[in-house]
C-alpha cells in the first residue's frame, strides 16, 4: 500500500523544490493523501492554463505551506494555513484549500477535504468570519485512505454530502476500491475515482484529467 513517505515525495515533486509543506514521512497517511490530492488539483489547474501561487490566510505570499490536518474554519487565525491561488486567464480567481468547512444547501456545515472556492467568496468569508457557500465551491473532493476495501456506508455518506453540496463536480477519491460502491455512486450520477493505490497509477492520471476538464469548463463559462 502507498505510504505517507511516497505521497509526501509526490507532493514535493508536483509543487516543486521551492515549495515546502508541513508533511513528512511520519505524517498520517490520510493527511498526506489529502495533500497529494491537493497537489493534483494544482497540477491540473496549471495544465488547464492557470497561474498558481500560494499564500497564507493573511494574504501573504508564501513558499512554506501549512495545511490543516483536521476540519477547520477558513477564517481561523490560529495558524497561518496556506491555500493555492488559481488564476485562469480572463476568469474570476479561485482558491484551493484543504480541510475547510462549507455551508451546504441546508445551511449545515460540512468538511471538504479538498475544496476549490471562488476567491471573492473566500476573501469575504475570512473578513466576515463566515463559511463558504456550497454554490461558490466549483470543486469539492472527499478523500478516503484505507488499508481495506471501501465500505458501502462511506459511499452512502459521500452521496449525502455530494447532494448537500449541489453534486456537480463533487468527487470521492480513495486509494482503495469497491465495485458495489462504484456501482451505487455511478447510479446516483455522482463522481468518483478509486484505486489511487500508487501515485504513478493510471487512476491518478484519470483524476488529473477529470480535474483539468473541470477547470477548462470553468474557464469557458466564466470569461
Account of the 3D structure:
The protein is α/β, with parallel strands linked by helices and 223 residues long. The protein has one domain. 37% of the residues lie in helices and 22% in strands. The protein is built from six helices and nine strands, in the order αβαβββββαβαβαβα. It has helices spanning 4-15, 29-47, 119-128, 152-164, 179-187, 202-221; strands spanning 20-21, 51-56, 64-65, 82-87, 94-103, 109-118, 139-144, 170-174, 191-193. The strands form two sheets. Strands 2-4-5-6-7-8-9 form a seven-stranded mixed beta sheet, with helices on both faces. β8 (170-174), α5 and β9 (191-193) form a beta-alpha-beta unit. α4 (152-164) runs parallel beside α5 (179-187). It starts with a helix and ends with a helix.
Keywords:
two-stranded parallel ribbon; alpha/beta; 9 strands; seven-stranded mixed β-sheet; 223 residues
Layout: helices, strands, pairs:
Blueprint: H1 4-15, E1 20-21, H2 29-47, E2 51-56, E3 64-65, E4 82-87, E5 94-103, E6 109-118, H3 119-128, E7 139-144, H4 152-164, E8 170-174, H5 179-187, E9 191-193, H6 202-221
Parallel strand pairs: 1-3, 7-8, 8-9
Antiparallel strand pairs: 2-4, 4-5, 5-6, 6-7
Amino acid at each position: 500500500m502507498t505510504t505517507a513517505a511516497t505521497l509526501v515525495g509526490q507532493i514535493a515533486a508536483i509543487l516543486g523544490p521551492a515549495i515546502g509543506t508541513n508533511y513528512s514521512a511520519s505524517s498520517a497517511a490520510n493527511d498526506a493523501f489529502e495533500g497529494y490530492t491537493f497537489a493534483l488539483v494544482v497540477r491540473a489547474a496549471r495544465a488547464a492554463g492557470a497561474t498558481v501561487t500560494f499564500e497564507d490566510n493573511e494574504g501573504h505570499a508564501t513558499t512554506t505551506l501549512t495545511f490543516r490536518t483536521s476540519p477547520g474554519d477558513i477564517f481561523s487565525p490560529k495558524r497561518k494555513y496556506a491555500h493555492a491561488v488559481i488564476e485562469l486567464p480572463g476568469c474570476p480567481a479561485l482558491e484551493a484549500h484543504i480541510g475547510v468547512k462549507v455551508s451546504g444547501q441546508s445551511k449545515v456545515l460540512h468538511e471538504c477535504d479538498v475544496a476549490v472556492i471562488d476567491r471573492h467568496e473566500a476573501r469575504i468569508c475570512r473578513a466576515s468570519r463566515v463559511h463558504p457557500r456550497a454554490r461558490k465551491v466549483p470543486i469539492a473532493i472527499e478523500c478516503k485512505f484505507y488499508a481495506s476495501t471501501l465500505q458501502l456506508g462511506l459511499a452512502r455518506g459521500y452521496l449525502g454530502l455530494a447532494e448537500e453540496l449541489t453534486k456537480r463536480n463533487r468527487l470521492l477519491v480513495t486509494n482503495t476500491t469497491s465495485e458495489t460502491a462504484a456501482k451505487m455512486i455511478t447510479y446516483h450520477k455522482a463522481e468518483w475515482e478509486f484505486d489511487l493505490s500508487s501515485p504513478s497509477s493510471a487512476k491518478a492520471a484519470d483524476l488529473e484529467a477529470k480535474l483539468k476538464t473541470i477547470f477548462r469548463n470553468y474557464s469557458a463559462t466564466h470569461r
